[in-house]
Amino acid sequence: MVKRMKMKRVLLIALMAIMLLPTVSFAASNKKEVRTAFDGNITNNSLAVSPDEQLAIVSDSRESSIRIYDLDKDKLKKVIDGFVTPRNILFVDGGSTFVVSDSTLGTLRFYRTKNFALKDEVAVGPGAFGTAVSPDGKTLYVNNQAHSSVTVVDLEKRQPTAVITGFAQPRQGIKVSPDGKSIFVTNFQGDKISVIDAATNKIIREITGFSMIRGISISTDGGTLYAANSGRNSISAVNTVDGSIKNEIQVGREPYGASLSPDGELLFASNKADNTINVINVADQRIVKTMDGFNEPRQAIVFSKDGERSYVLNRDLSIARVDVETLSITDTIQEESKRYKLNMLKSDKFGKYLTDQEGMTLYYFTKDEPDVSNCKGQCLENWPPFYAENIVAPKGFDKKEFKTIVRDDGQKQTTYKGHPLYYFVKDKQVGDVNGQGVNDVWFILGKKAFEK
């Protein structure tokens, strides 16, 4: 693996836990070995964006690798293998290093951001899950769902300094207060939040009243905590001083994420079952918009430092980039092979027009309504619906205007500026435009289609 890789010794309690639980190999090896997941029944994903917004690193606990995307070029840059159940990713050391927790390996792996080389590996015991860094960047807190504990790691020395017990399956949810004095830890069992005093490393109180608690966020003044309740489809606004729930905001189905914008004005509530994000205005705690187009969004949401963009991880490990001003997806970053590239062809008679990835002509129907297809029955036999995901639009077409509708018959269909798109059965080869002008209601799409 990497020469001079340092393996740090863990505290006695963690070492005992490792010896008592199924053996896993922490040693470097050039051979690919199949490891049984320690807690594979628990699934989650993670997203970290570098401070300079050049890189995004993603993971899914069902995948044995992590992926690194170049955010400037919007493409996959590198895949790092060798994990079993990667749980959480964070940038530390001012962005020069990123750390990945793996609950089966029971370690924290530290990589150099510059060349993605493995720098250090710290054993914290199987079950290592969510992580959070103190505001001064010196301390890392690691949830351990198997031991119901939180391990405190000195980031300068790269070694554990304490193990705090008394939790009930702490998983991904853990946040440090802006002043660094308190750590808020979600407990999957018991639906509660444990509050740690950072000075003493002791649990000082608990906050209850949640339902299948997931992601949490804390306001910049530290006074309010927002928690996603996937059990009752809501976001709880909690007074961090007395632990009371001040308000309950109803959102979509199975909310997992509750992410605050840097200025604290907006909260993104990601709904895994709805494939949507509810945007909540923090001032009056009302939903101002519901964004769609995501794929099982969970807790993995990251805002840019200036708050102008947000990055949302999808189920397939693609990343939706969101314009926070317009509250819309501007593009999706993913592996090149998963993109669907529309094309433009030129006809001597009709000029340039839109085609699918294979060059077959696409049409629109003037009798359709916005986002509604009125082509049914016999019509569909002659004009089959066109559908594709992750579209790359040709020059002159706005990618954001390509969306998906679900027809009355249950089929998905792609639309452009609200107009459903179709093929024509009499087009047999690339370059055919036999459907152009049929009955004066069927037309090809040029760059200026639907312009007023």
Automatic annotation (TrEMBL):
Keywords: Signal. It comes from the Bacteria. Residues 1-27 form the signal peptide. InterPro entries: Haem_d1_sf, Host-pathogen_enzymatic-act, Lactonase_7-beta_prop, Lipoprotein_repeat, WD40/YVTN_repeat-like_dom_sf, YVTN_b-propeller_repeat. Pfam families: Lactonase, Lipoprotein_15. This is Beta-propeller fold lactonase family protein.
